[in-house]
Amino acid sequence: MSAARPRTTLRTLAAVAALPLLLTACGYGSESNDDGGQAKAASGAKKLSADSVKIGYFPNLTHGTALVGVQKGLLQKELGGTQIKPSTFNAGPSEIEALNAGSIDIGWIGPSPAINGYTKSQGKSLRIIGGSASGGVKLVVNPKKIKSLDDLKGKKIATPQFGNTQDVAFLNWIAEKGWKVDAQSGKGDVSVVRSDNKITPDAYKSGSIDGAWVPEPTASKLVSEGGKVILDEADLWPDKKFVITNIIVSQKFLKEHPDVVEAVLRGSVKTNKWINANPEKAKASANAALQKLSGKALPAKVIDPAWKSIDFLDDPLASTLDSEAKHAVKSGLLEQPDLKGIYDLKPLNKVLKAEGEDGVDDAGLGTK
């Protein structure tokens, strides 16, 4: 399958491919010191076709399915004697590199890194096998400096990373306003400042940025510091739904261990069902996992509004991923990609059918 590759000027992505020595700094393969409370494989339980499965995700609320699924042992329960080996990451490109290197087999990740990973490998590295979350992204600004969306012109607004999902969304929004910004430098009618979510609240407090287009819980952290939500990205999408977190798998692992992949998907579906049936308990479980992974739980004023803004679902919302790819092209971050085959939803639809749920659609981007 031929696929257009991202432009060579994508410095962040090129660095991931060409400078593996920097991967440690990016969080590559950075298994947490604590496993987030994961359940151990039951002694004597029957193993599937693999002794273990290496799973990657972010210590973010938008990865709540993985946080709760590992913390509550819901994923491990479906795997029996096949042990989960979790790793956490701080950036999408580093997780894609880990998948390509075999350091993880399955990962929770945002749409833009999945698109970039697929196109850079010419369709040979990964498949998207399920959805996990929608929403949870907001534009938060300093209300003393910005009263309306038009006031963003001339201001400094942070996004989490060059070329990441929120960076693409903000650049697309800017383009639709008719404003001009150089995608590479971030300079133009609005200054786009690429800032790690960990330091964005401090940058906001110091006044070095005027706002940020960020996922939860960073958005709610900014609000707790006096920021104001001026736009919820969900309001820009049909039915207010758009993919923020997918589940991906290496094609090699999918081919060699389909039973393990199916078990992880079954655990994900059951975890989402439990989350939606028990929102308060699920929020507490996610916060407990974050505390074990980062050493600090989120205060109620941050986690309460953040958790409410995220929808946990099994549908990967494939049509919105296609739209996000088009946004990246329009923004100058990506040449027109060939995404045919990026999805393989057959295992997920098998699981959903067994659970009495409706199947999901790949928007014409699935494998044959």
Descriptive overview:
Keywords: Cell inner membrane, Cell membrane, Membrane, Signal, Transport. This is Aliphatic sulfonate ABC transporter substrate-binding protein. Pfam families: NMT1_2. Belongs to the bacterial solute-binding protein SsuA/TauA family. Its main location: membrane. With 368 residues, the protein is an alpha/beta fold. The protein has 2 domains: 240 residues, 3-Layer(aba) Sandwich (D-Maltodextrin-Binding Protein, domain 2); 104 residues, D-Maltodextrin-Binding Protein, domain 2. The chain is 39% helix and 16% strand. The protein is built from 15 helices and 11 strands. The strands form 2 sheets. Strands 2-1-3-10-4-11 form a 6-stranded mixed sheet, sandwiched between helices. The protein has a 5-stranded mixed sheet with strand order 7-6-8-5-9, with helices on both faces. It starts with 10 loop residues before the first helix and ends in a 14-residue tail after the last helix. The N terminus is likely disordered.
Q: Helical residue percent?
A: 25-40%
CATH superfamily placement of the largest domain? Periplasmic binding protein-like II
- CATH architectural grouping of the largest domain: 3-Layer(aba) Sandwich
Would you give the CATH topology of the largest domain? Answer: D-Maltodextrin-Binding Protein, domain 2
| Beta-strand residue fraction | 15-25%
InterPro entries: ABC_SsuA_sub-bd (IPR010067), NrtA/CpmA_ABC-bd_dom (IPR044527)
Pfam family, one: NMT1_2
Main location: membrane
Protein name: Aliphatic sulfonate ABC transporter substrate-binding protein
